[in-house]
Amino acid sequence: MKRVFHKVGLLAGTAIALAGVTAPMALAQDQELSEIIVTGTRLKGPNLQTASPLTAVGEAEIKFQGAVQVENVLNRLPQFTADANDNVSNGSDGTARVNLRNLGYVRNLVLIDGQRMLPPETADLNFIPSAMIERVDVVSGGASAVYGSDAISGVVNFILRKNLDGVYADMQYSINHTRNDNSYVRSLLNKRGYELAPKSTWDGAKKDINVAMGFNSGDKKGNVTFYAGYRENNPVTQDSRDYSSCALDPAGPDALACGGSSNNSYGLFSFQSAQTGKNVTLNNTKDGQKSWVPYDSSFAYNYAPTNYIQRSDSRVTAGAIGHYELAVEAELYGSFMFMEDHTFSQAAPSALFQGTVFKINCDNPLMSAGQAAQLCGSATGQAVDKDTFIGYRLTGPGSEPRRDDLRHTAYRVSSGVRGKLGDNWTYDTNFLYSSIRLEESYKNNVDNAKAQKALQVVNVNGTPTCKSKIDGTDPSCTPIDVFKYNGISAAGYQYLYAPTYTNGVQTERVFSAGVTGQLGDYGLQSPFAEQGFSIALGAEHRDETLDFQADALAQAGGIKPNNGKLNVEEFYGELQVPLVQDRPLVKELSLNGGYRMSRYSNNDDWVKTYKTELQYAPTGDVRLRGSYNRAVRAANISELYAQQSLGNVASQDPCAGNNPSASLAACQRSGMTAAQYGNTLECPADTCVAQGGGNPLLKPEEADTFTGGVVLTPEFVPGLSLTVDYFHINIDKYIGSVDAQTVINQCIQTGNPFFCNLFHRDPSNGVLFGNNGYIVSTQQNTGYLRTSGLDVQGDYRFDLEDLIQRDLGAINIGLVGTYLLKRETEQLPGLGSYECKGLFGPTCGQPNPTWRHQLRTTWQMPWMNANLSINWRYFGSVKLSSNTDNEFLAGTKSNINAKIGAYNYFDLTGTVEVYEGATLRAGVNNIFDKAPPAIAAGLLSSFGNGNTYPGVYDPLGMNLFVGLTLKL
What we know:
By secondary structure, the protein is mainly β.
């Protein structure tokens, strides 16, 4: 498979803390105001509560999961869909991201203590120091009126420790084990003669060490906390798991087969036959002789074994967070944070890939007479060039897998002054600067320019010699013999290999100033309420820059330089109005409103966002809440200014192959000629090419989000908290590109000129891959995205002594679940829509189950602060989208992959305080070693890897961990 270019950004205690959080979060009145952070509002004040649904994940839950990567913790929550992570290899950009409500990672905003984490295109969660996490708040629904652009689906806010006095250290080791007992896939491997994965394997170890030291000032007015951490992940290759040991292809609707890429080890050739005048696709024979036979799937190359299912990765974090109160009117605060993350992805050895036209001279002495006759005919032996498509995998002695070396270095500096202005007002002025730099080298890839020189060979005194060596244009040229199996020498490999280099940096600066006030003393107070109005006013300036560079070889491979800048001026206000408090049948009735005006440098118009929230508590046991938010997302720099470039996309061409599934008339509408019909190569490994790029005329996305719910904390059931919230998010003019498979399907099936005009078939052979065949898929304001559902969260804690009259501790049960009602997309206005609820597949993407949940039950023992916790993760069943009747979801149909059944995972963790301040933990995730579903590669989409969705289903089997936390 060709390298997939997908550069984003640089493009270039209880387990789940539900009881006090799923209900609107109340502030502890004995805390200092400077320490209080309420996610979802800029307001400050006693007993402040937000109407937005909020879930918090505390330190205990992170420890119970044995998690060393925070994205994995969040991806277990049903509000999230897995995004970039270390289980994605080929095409990875090396970052870790989260995707709230499956609306795309660019539509949720990531914060640290209420401030933006990093430039929005590069919100890499590897930056978060795990030793410093106090909790993680997740606010669902639009929050642009509070935080600005990008907060359409919600906000993820990492709350860090700020007043550590002493030493905190944490270390953990984990490893995976699996039985590899997928008998069906093992039978497919046996059928092709492929090596089987070992029946029992231990691998993928992860080591994580973190230390934090905090010091209070002598006068108790300040604190500074330093931290440092190191994490190392060992790689895991796909041949270590049976389900991923070969590239799975459909073998009819009812079966799978070990397939792979037509860019095979023996050598594939496609050209216009000199003997028949028709396009032919031939393959070198398997016996190493220089002769050609018709290509069939038995020649396909199994690219899976060397690919990573877990990337090699190492990360270093360090920094300091501090504050000091000069006076009650002025507290200085600031932070410095650093991260360097170094990761490698690995893919199958490179190839002379189909799609690139190579010229072979008819007097090339490395061709046999029979091969020359088929290619050149009467021109055999003459200095005449013939255009040829070659698919030749470099797998012989001296070959190396492709390796992508990615290094991200990030800095974040913040500083500010905050304090009181009299009795009723507070202020906060701050500055934030963040940058992230990418340095990337891609190794062991073929330089096509060198390959062309190495194919232009003549006989010099019985020695095959490059023409470029003779004429002096390339004295180092080494001839390559592609006319037989393993014909290329080790010297030939070294000549062909050429690393590519890219680097870039993205920065963000934020200047912010705001005030909050209590207006009751000014007479702004409802006569039916005990508290007056609260207000927050502020202004913000942000500017972002992007500078991404690629060397000549990288540009030839489709990666283009990208440069741009963007700035925004914003003004905001928020008002809290307690209407009624502590009256009969009205414990509380309050209204909250917010408004923000933003002007972006690429658009002179002011963009307006706003919100209104209502809360009603008839008693202390019941609270009703609802909100409406108008949110926006402005196009980022890459979406605006990225140069047009080619990249691989998962898709299938129904007009390709010897027996196309589409009719000649339909294929002619897509730009294929009658002569090419039935003689055109299929996209290798179900991967065609699309032309992407930016659009400076993009308008902001607009979203209307609604939430409404109930919070129950019944006094007659002590320890119980239950919330049910409805959410609905409607995004119009969403920024994206029309899916390549949708373009293909719509043109072939309907003949719609809009879609057919997006085809650019290679004029020489009709393919949709290589440098001259692609689907146009640049950025534009498209149709709409709609999603809605119900979030259910609950926590119940009870003492066992109340049941059995013995002090055996307490039981805590925590549930968080989501029921999906709608996941609808309209790719273009008026075109029609498709529904992805309960589906997965090439167009719908990763599985969208109707119901998923996490249910944790913890026994808190009265001895040695011990805990025993079991977690049940449920992920509902999903069906293949292309099996439906919706025209926009059309594609390969399958019976064997028609449905992925419901998945139940169970995790077990124990913790014990071995001595004061030292807590030992050990646990097993996926205790029954449940393997992920095996899915044909062509039915996967983004973030599919190794014949499965490794961010959704546990890819490595059982995970065992042991850790130690020290608090001194």
